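The data layer described in this paper is built around a simple, fixed record for each protein. We quote a single record here, exactly as it is kept in our systems:
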Amino acid sequence: MAGGTSLVALTAANIFSLLFCAAGIYHRLDPWLVLIAAVSMALCVAAILIKKGESRRLNELTESVRALARSFDETAALIAGEGDEVDQLAQALDVLRESSRRAMVSEANLKAAVENMVEGIVMISANGKVALHNQRLLKIFGLPAMNAIGLPRAEFNAMLVGALRWPRSAQDYLQKQLAEIRSDGNYRVFDVELPDNRVLRYSASMLVDGNVMSYVEDISEQRAAAASILRLAHYDTLTDLPNRTLFQERFVTAVESAEREPAACVTLLLCDLDRFKAVNDTYGHPVGDELLRQATRRMRAQVRTDNILARLGGDEFAVIYLSRNDHEGAEGLARRLVACLEQPFEIRGHEVSVGISIGIATARVHATSVDDLMIRADLALYAAKQDGRNRHRVYEPAMSMFTDEYGGLESALRKAIDNDSLHIHYQPQVDLRTRRIVAFEALARWDRAERGTVSADTFISVAEKSGLIVPLGAWVLRRACTDALGWGDDIMIAVNVAPQQLRTEGFVDMVSDVLAKAGLKATRLELEITESAPLYDDEAMLTVLRKLAIIGVRVSMDDFGTGNTGLSYLHKFRFDRLKIDQSFVRKLGDGREAELIVNAIVELSVSLNVETVAEGIETEQQAAILRSMNCSIGQGFLFGRPAPLSVANSLIAEQNAAFANDQLVSRR
């Protein structure tokens, strides 16, 4: 209340001067004293008036500062009623100073947060100048660190786009988007693609004060990663061709488009490389992979850019041939594909040869749906393979009969296995020197009551394609081991085994169980593995063969000399026998070449201490040639055709009787 006290003192002094002046006039005092008193009174009156004005202004200032302080800190209201106006003003200023300090700390924290953001930030004020930005923004645009606050928007944008050399189209697109945001105030996210494959993503919006805030992020790596993932999902990594997934999508689109345009023609070519498996197994997967790459390059050179060449998997390819009213152009392409793959390939010092089989089907001509068109082309491909491979076939309605027949055979074969209605024929294998039977090969046979005998090639093919080869093989093994039990310990039973069986979990345990239930010694069982079976580098299958050898089962390689993989097998596993393919044996006596091949196989077997079995012997001349080469065992029509168990039992009985008679004669 210092201001109030001063005012009281001035008032008292003024009253005293007034009384003194009145007394002087009344008592006729010295005029100078009266004048002095009057002047003092006037000064007091003036002081009182001035003091009242200052007090009023001071009160107003104090209240204003207190109100401002309360807007920063509600606790400022607590100073009301404490001290005079100056004290209240001082306390209010203290509150303002603390609030200002806090604001500065918050601003510093905000600035640090803005500078550490992944995105670049820029805020353009309503008057078109840069109000805020971070250094990350400048770094995205390749600019050095600087303070651009206060720069006009046009100048700042020119500096940014100039650093990345934006094309005019990108600049116009950006300005259009930002102008629309300033116009309607809506939040927008948009990407700007640049010529150097960079992509900038803008997230921009208008604030309540009219400023436009933009967040800028370089999403080039994200976009590239997404594109890479998308490509992996739709393209084959080895050949860089569309894979099965993308092929299906484009095939469906092409067929649906053709349905809406009568002149459009969509033809499907399904392709398989011939003899690819032999090359892959002989030289290994690196050579096989390079063969696929080189074959792809040759095929690409024949396929127009508006058509689609795809790799469906393995050695399977497909072409979507697009044309207008051209149903014969696809055949021309097929002929070119066959021709371009006929020439040998040079791969890692090896000259390898393959071919290609092609099946053709055309939309609306051969089928109306995508699925049916695939089936028709697949049937035509099968026909091309049956005709000798390395050729093309166009679908014909008669080919569909095979589908119906195949489906019927699969169902009937499944029932035959379940009902135990198959039977086995046995073909003898003899010692070429003594002509004694040393083994029988078990060969499955199937007689259908309504259709007659089904060829082994036919139902074995059905079994392999349908997966029935596993239960069929198990059935043959059980029956053969049971039938062989009464032949004597010196006669073996040979059973063919498919690769699918070797890959079946628990195959070795199944073989052991069959032998135990039949009561047959493991050393009397021989499992024949065809040379064309894909054993190369398949450690799991080789492990199965080794386990079979451990329990005493003998393993032989069938059709040796035809699959071009035998030597690779012999490095991986020691077979007990090599069976020379009958295609070589039947030519013995007709030319020198066949004799050289067979003799080389026999010499290899002798060097490895492995027995040789020659298949397909039909004449005594062939038997004599093989015997002169030291071939161990022979099999063929000369010694007996495949026959039922009763015939095999009779042959053994005759042999035993002859042996007994020889023994009797020798004793005499």
Notes: The longest strand covers residues 437-448. Confidence is low (pLDDT under 50) at residues 7-12, 14-35, 76-81.
